[in-house]
Model the fold of this input.
Amino acid sequence: MSDTNKPIDTAVALKYDGKQAPKVTAKGEEALAREIVAIAEEHGIPLYHDEKLARTLARMDLGSEIPKELYITIAEIIAFAYKLQGRVPEGFTPPNDNNSDN
Done:
């Protein structure tokens, strides 16, 4: 889902293999950022819009693992993307909903 009303200044792509910390696999500004987003949209990859986070990640070298300070933030984004795609991480066992107070 792309917000076409707001220009895309910076985009960063991450790859997560489920074993190691996510890595920066693509990054760019302006035209390159728009191309990264377009490719992601073409392939049905969920997008997360956070300009501050994108700019922080864009300072990293390609192939670098995200820093430990961003683990929780990125984990929440990945978990949301998995949920949108109807996926679960390998080896994940969902909690028993019968014990939920919801």
